[in-house]
């Protein structure tokens, strides 16, 4: 019988301390049929690691409430922050098999393997951001597995566990699905197969794989830091006519006539979306003082407050900076039938972070594709995603800044940073154009809203929301 090699255990612990200090987040996945040894193997690892920065998440069959959230929602919530380690006992792979075997969300997913694209995108996105994903498929001799199950049944204290085994997906179906899933995702983050028939050998094999992965992670981090560049790559002389149309005409009387009718329709649509369990996500970006807050206020003025939430996004906190930049947004998406409004959003990565040099060149350049994948996953889950970019001319912005500065109850809205941002007007426009060009898609198009006239801007946004919602609900188009 093979003994557990303590030198390997100590080496894993030492490398884990080094990845913690290097701020490398590590995700370790344990998959395998029931009673294959996953829990015993993962517990050996938990005992070897420092509990201060090690976490454990066990995937269970999704509840009704779980099914109201996106497929990857529980994993976004539980990814480790930089320097931490999370062990996933069963993972997004077992979750996909659950979805397919029990035909979950059949009204949305006609083909459950579409979720494979979400998994691939999720893993690749995290790997690009410096995460290390270590995946284990745990196998065991079938005779030994059955012996373990029988022992569990016969012990009154563990009989409940055997009952859980009986509810699990049949081993042959799980194995067949996992073989396919491993083959499809091997090129993103490789799989390591561990045979738990002999405990000591299984633990040593696990440690050896982890040592190899963590050593590589440390080398990759060092190389990445050496090659890191920060460059917004802006043109010397940028010109565009994309944002020249800043004025829509609308009289005060016309606005007063239209607004109540559109707001009432918004309330009716809110109830219809709730009834059909369709989530609605509204994103507002644009120049400072373009009227995003006032626009959002008119959208939600007549809504039922129990069915929507507004996320006013500011600079990321220290905690938020310790995760992937999409983490704070992926964990705030609405459950089915609810509305989530983002006053600024994940586009900060390609706007302010690019403009101010907070993101490296490689980070903001790859963000376009990451954002498109993120929004596509929301659309796959049945969400309506509507994005507004509010534009006003430089002279109008100056007038609004002065008004804020000279009006006591509005002074909180104007800061020194707002004035500094005006000096970067041209490069902000260039970043905005690039953003719209690269992230306006069929499933999540950008709507450019002329904002010199606040009233016209509010009406245009309301009409656009109503049109998209009515088209999804009943296939009608009014505007």
Q: How does this structure look, described?
A:
It contains 19 helices and ten strands. By secondary structure, it is of the alpha/beta class. It folds into two domains: 6-226, Rossmann fold; 252-474, Rossmann fold (3-Layer(aba) Sandwich), CATH 3.40.50.300. The strands form two sheets. Strands 2-3-1-4-5 form a five-stranded parallel sheet, sandwiched between helices. α3 (73-78) links the parallel β2 (54-58) and β3 (85-89). α1 (6-21) packs parallel to α9 (199-226). The model has no long low-confidence stretch (mean pLDDT 95).
What is the C-alpha radius of gyration, as a whole number of Å? 26 Å
**CATH H-level homologous superfamily name of the largest domain:** P-loop containing nucleotide triphosphate hydrolases
**How helix-rich are the residues, as a percent range?**
40-55%
Q: Characterize the main sheet.
A: 5 strands, parallel
Count of discrete domains? 2
Strand content: 5-15%
The CATH class designation of the largest domain is: Alpha Beta
Strand order of the largest sheet: 2-3-1-4-5
Q: What's the number of helices?
A: 19
The number of E-state strands comes to: 10
- Return the CATH topology of the largest domain: Rossmann fold
* CATH architecture assignment of the largest domain: 3-Layer(aba) Sandwich
Low-confidence segments, ≥5 residues, pLDDT <50?
Answer: none
Protein name: Phosphate--AMP phosphotransferase
Organism: Macrococcus carouselicus
Keywords: Coiled coil
Pfam families: PPK2
């Amino acid at each position: 019988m093979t003994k557990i090699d303590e030198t390997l255990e100590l080496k894993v612990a030492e490398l884990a301390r080094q990845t913690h200090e290097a701020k490398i987040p590590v995700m370790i996945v344990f998959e395998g049929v029931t009673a294959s040894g996953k829990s015993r193997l993962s517990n050996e690892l938990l005992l070897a690691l420092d509990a201060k920065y090690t976490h454990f998440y066990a995937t269970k069959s999704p509840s009704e409430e779980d099914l109201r959230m996106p497929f990857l929602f529980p994993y976004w919530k539980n990814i480790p922050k930089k320097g931490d380690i999370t062990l996933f006992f069963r993972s997004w792979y077992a979750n996909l098999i659950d979805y397919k075997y029990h035909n979950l969300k059949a009204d949305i997913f006609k083909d459950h393997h579409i979720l494979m694209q979400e998994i691939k995108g999720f893993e690749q996105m995290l790997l690009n951001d410096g995460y290390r994903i270590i995946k284990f498929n745990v196998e065991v001799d079938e005779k030994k597995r059955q012996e373990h199950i029988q022992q569990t049944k016969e012990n009154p204290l563990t009989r409940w566990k055997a009952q859980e085994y009986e509810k699990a997906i049949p081993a042959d179906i799980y194995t067949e699905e996992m073989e396919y899933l491993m083959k499809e995702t091997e090129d993103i983050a490789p799989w390591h197969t561990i045979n738990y028939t002999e405990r000591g050998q299984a633990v040593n094999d696990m440690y050896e794989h982890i040592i190899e992965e963590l050593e590589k992670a440390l080398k990759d981090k060092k190389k990445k830091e050496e090659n890191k560049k920060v460059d917004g790559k802006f043109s010397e002389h940028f010109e565009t006519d994309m944002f020249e149309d800043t004025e829509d005409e609308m009289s005060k009387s016309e606005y007063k006539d239209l607004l109540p009718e559109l707001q009432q329709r918004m309330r009716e649509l809110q109830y219809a979306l709730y009834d059909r369990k369709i989530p609605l996500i509204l994103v507002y970006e644009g120049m400072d003082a373009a009227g995003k807050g006032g626009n959002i206020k008119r959208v939600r003025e007549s809504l039922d407050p129990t069915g929507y939430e507004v996320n006013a996004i500011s600079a990321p906190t220290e905690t938020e900076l310790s995760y992937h930049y999409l983490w704070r947004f992926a964990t705030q998406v609405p459950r089915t039938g609810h509305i989530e409004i983002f006053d600024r959003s994940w586009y900060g990565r390609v706007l302010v972070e690019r403009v101010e040099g907070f993101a490296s060149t490689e980070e903001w350049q790859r963000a376009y594709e990451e954002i498109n994948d993120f929004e596509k996953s929301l659309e796959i889950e049945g969400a309506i995603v509507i994005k507004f970019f509010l534009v006003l001319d430089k002279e109008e912005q100056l007038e609004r800044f002065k008004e804020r500065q000279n009006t006591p109850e509005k002074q909180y809205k104007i800061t020194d940073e707002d004035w500094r941002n005006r000096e970067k007007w041209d490069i902000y426009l260039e970043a905005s154009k690039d953003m719209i060009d690269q992230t306006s898609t069929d499933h999540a198009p950008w709507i450019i809203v002329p904002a010199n006239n606040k009233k016209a801007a509010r009406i245009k946004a309301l009409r656009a929301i109503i049109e998209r919602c009515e088209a999804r609900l009943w296939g009608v188009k009014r505007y």
